[in-house]
Amino acid sequence: MQTGTLITLALYFILMIGIGLFAWKRSTDTSEGYLLAGRNLPPSVAALSAGASDMSGWLLLGLPGALYAGGLVEAWIGIGLFLGAVVNWVVVAPRLRAQTESYGNALTIPEFLANRFPERAVSLRVVSAIVVVAFFTVYTAAGLVGGGKLFETAFAGILPNTGMSDYMLGIWITALVVLAYTMVGGFLAVSLTDFVQGCIMVVALVVMPLVVMFGPGGSGGDSIGAIPQEGFLSLSYGLTAIGFISAVTWGLGYFGQPHIIVRFMAVRSVKEVATARNIGLGWMGVALIGAIGVGAAGRAYAERNGIVVEDPETIFIVLSDLLFHPLVTGFLFAALLAAIMSTISSQLLVSSSSLTEDFYRLFLRKNASEREAVNVGRICVALVALAAIGIAADPESEVLGLVSNAWAGFGAAFGPLIILSLTWDRMTGAGALAGLVTGAATVAIWIALGWNSDFIGGQGLYEIVPGFILAWLAIVVVSRMTYAGGEPAHA
């Protein structure tokens, strides 16, 4: 059985690497080509690339696992994310596409902030680059954990004996394939693979719940209502005010995710952002409903057939292995790897761009040639991946936990900063720096104190809430104190 599955996965890996080689021939001669595909992405590619790089393994592991264990009340995270994505596409996308080009043709978020606030250019580039690399290393580790769990659960005992666990072997295989096409093909390879991966993911998320409910061992969905857990199908059962706020405020994170909003910078034109928005939000709505369906239907199937699922985050893997022909199982595992790899590749490339453009070219080699910058970017991709592998080595790591920390860090540090820099002319460089530092520091302190799990003797409050609020206030207060009049000048 596993042979057919492995064949399908091998074909998937070959396809991804083939796309990387295609992109290598098309867009890696210059930094703009390597980092933004020459700002020439079609709306469909930009939309699915943003969606696929956004959702990661969380969509097929974390969210179905949360639904499986806790019931429909966990869907508030998905609802909050969808609402945040709507605002992100409407408010941030068109403005960021236009302004990053008009402010010195900025290729990275730190570079845009430096051009937007020249009086704090170096400080903003350095601090924002540090935040990008630090949080993305953790975020990338979350994706690698997903790859490790897939191989550990699905191929236990049949993988080659390499002297390491199936979990670590899965991490290395996932990382090496991603590195192959990301290092070679740059942003175009990442975006094109994201497009293919997004298509695979949404097909899998539509097919899986239907087969679980209506296939052999299912009950047409009737068994979902018979799950022996009180309030399983309720959106409000056991939901506290803090719990509700913590769930829906995941949507605040969208405005500050560099690996997502960089897609807005690469859309072919501002006019085509609206088309990309409609495609992206449609894809996201179907994908979220499918992920919720996998969790709920999977729990019903397991209860009905007496199946024990030790780790709820592996329910997608378990169902794929139980219910489908090996070749289809391989396709479903490819969908999971697509979710994981699309995000990892995007995060590695954004981290690399910050290290290259905001450190190497800023301090070490200001006159570096385009070819040299591209090659340095490739080296940085590998370095960040190695650091992430070290973090992911703990097999007890949880995908949702790692993702939530990194998501909050970016959302609080960059969210208010990006929104206000695009919409408020009186924002100053001092205010921008204050917001960036305040947001990142608040999230780090909140996590260190454990207030995200136990706040004032009760349920924890998600760290993005205080981080986002305090960062917004810091920007507004400091900007009002330091504003000297006049309009921001376009570079």
From TrEMBL:
Main localization of the protein described in the UniProt heading: membrane
Keyword annotations from UniProtKB, A to Z: Amino-acid transport, Cell inner membrane, Cell membrane, Ion transport, Membrane, Sodium, Sodium transport, Symport, Transmembrane, Transmembrane helix, Transport
Annotated GO MF terms: L-proline transmembrane transporter activity; proline:sodium symporter activity; sodium ion binding
Subcellular location: Cell inner membrane; Cell membrane
CDD domains: SLC5sbd_PutP
Record bears the keyword Transmembrane helix: yes
Catalyses which reaction(s): L-proline(in) + Na(+)(in) = L-proline(out) + Na(+)(out)
InterPro entries (alphabetical): Na/Glc_symporter_sf, Na/Pro_symporter, Na/solute_symporter, Na/solute_symporter_CS, Sodium:Solute_Symporter
Annotated GO CC locations: plasma membrane
One Pfam family per UniProt: SSF
Listed transmembrane segments: 6-24, 75-93, 126-147, 167-188, 195-215, 235-255, 276-302, 322-344, 373-393, 399-420, 432-452, 464-483
Membrane topology field: Multi-pass membrane protein
Any one of the GO BP annotations: proline transport
Similarity-based family: Belongs to the sodium:solute symporter (SSF) (TC 2.A.21) family.
Function field: Catalyzes the sodium-dependent uptake of extracellular L-proline.
Protein name: Sodium/proline symporter
